[in-house]
Every structure is written in C-alpha cells, then in structure tokens.
C-alpha cells in the first residue's frame, strides 16, 4: 500500500479534532485518509448468535445511515484536497481498527480519546488502550481536552472588548 493514515471515528465530540489533525498530517505527508467507523449490533444475550428476533432490516438501515454520515465527514476532507476512503465495519471497535491497521499497513493511526476515567475502563475497556497494545504502527492520540481548551479560548475571546480600531466584521477562522 502507498502512504495511508487510518482514522477511526465514533461521531463523538472529539471527532472534529481527530479529523483536523488527520487532515494536517494527510496534507503534509501526501497520504490517503481511510476514515472508518466500527459498529456492533446490540443483541440481547438470550438470542444467541444472531438468533430469533434479530432485526436485520433495522441493522442494515443503521449501517446505511452511518455510511452516509461517514461520507459527509470524508467529503469535508476531500474538499480540502485530500484523497479519502470511507467505510463502516461491523464488529468491536478494537478488533476492526487492529484488523484494518494490519490490512492497510498505514503510516499512522489517528485516534480520539474521550478522557473517561478508570471506572469506564474497568467496565468496558478502552478502545485507545486496546489499539495501542495491538497495532504495530505509530498511533496519534487526540485528547478530548483539546476541545475544552479550544472552546475556552473562543469563549474568552468573545468576552473581551475589541481593541480600538478593530473592525468587528472581521472574524478569526479556526
């Protein structure tokens, strides 16, 4: 494979930051961006493995909606001049990310971190930790705290009075 950056997204509040970092790196390295999303169906344990009562139609509708949303994110990167491929996979996020990292052999995986505490990791584990333990390429972790810092800076700037001679019609682009 050529130069590639694998970017798993979960449509959370950190997704925009992950995409921004991936875009910067993709442009600098001339890499193809692979946007992926992993979703696992919620199946009650008494149904066995995809057993009685499983709603295949609802599951398909959900996958199509997720693919459309992922396509929108990819379109935003494409508009910035990046080559992007998007796909929704079914499976546990860690398993999907590791499998795709092995298949694509990317230069880098760009992954968001939600900053959940130890209790969350104890209950369900951490995708970040699972990926870091299992992939063999470098992984860039984009912390959710970046969103809080950016929001604080923007909020603080909005609260400050304009300096004399500053035109209020000119805005900053982040």
**Topology as a string of helices (H) and strands (E):** EHEHEHEHHEH
Count of all domains? 1
Architecture (CATH level 2) name: 3-Layer(aba) Sandwich
CATH superfamily: HUPs
Structural class call reads: alpha/beta
**Principal-axis shape:** globular
Query: Overall mean pLDDT score?
Result: 77
Number of strands: 5
Q: What percent strand?
A: 15-25%
Structure overview:
- The chain is α/β, with parallel strands linked by helices and 174 residues long.
- The chain has one domain: HUPs (Rossmann fold).
- 46% of the residues lie in helices and 18% in strands.
- It is built from six helices and five strands, in the order βαβαβαβααβα.
- The protein has helices at residues 15-29, 56-78, 93-104, 118-124, 127-134, 145-159; strands at 4-8, 32-39, 84-90, 108-113, 139-143.
- It has a five-stranded parallel sheet, with helices on both faces.
- Strand 1 (4-8), helix 1 (15-29) and strand 2 (32-39) form a beta-alpha-beta unit.
- Helix 3 runs parallel beside helix 5 (127-134).
- The longest helix is centred in the middle third of the chain and has 23 residues, at 56-78.
- It starts with a strand and ends in a 15-residue tail after the last helix.
- The model is unreliable at 119-124, 147-155 and 166-174 (pLDDT under 50).
């Amino acid at each position: 494979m050529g130069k590639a950056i694998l970017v798993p997204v979960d449509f959370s509040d950190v997704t925009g930051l992950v995409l921004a970092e991936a875009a910067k790196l993709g442009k600098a390295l001339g890499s193809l961006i692979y946007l992926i999303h992993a979703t696992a169906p919620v199946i009650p344990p008494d149904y066995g493995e995809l057993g009685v009562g499983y709603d295949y139609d609802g599951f398909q509708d959900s996958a199509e909606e997720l693919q459309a949303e992922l396509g929108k994110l990819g379109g935003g990167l494409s508009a910035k001049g990046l080559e992007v491929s998007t796909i929704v996979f079914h499976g546990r996020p860690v398993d999907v990310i590791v499998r795709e990292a092995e298949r694509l052999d990317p230069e880098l995986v760009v992954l968001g971190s939600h900053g959940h505490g130890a209790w969350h990791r104890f209950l369900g584990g951490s995708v970040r930790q699972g990926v870091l333990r299992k992939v063999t390429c470098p992984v860039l972790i984009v912390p959710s705290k970046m969103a809080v810092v950016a929001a604080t800076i923007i909020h603080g700037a909005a609260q400050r009075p304009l300096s004399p001679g500053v035109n209020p019609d000119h805005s900053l682009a982040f």
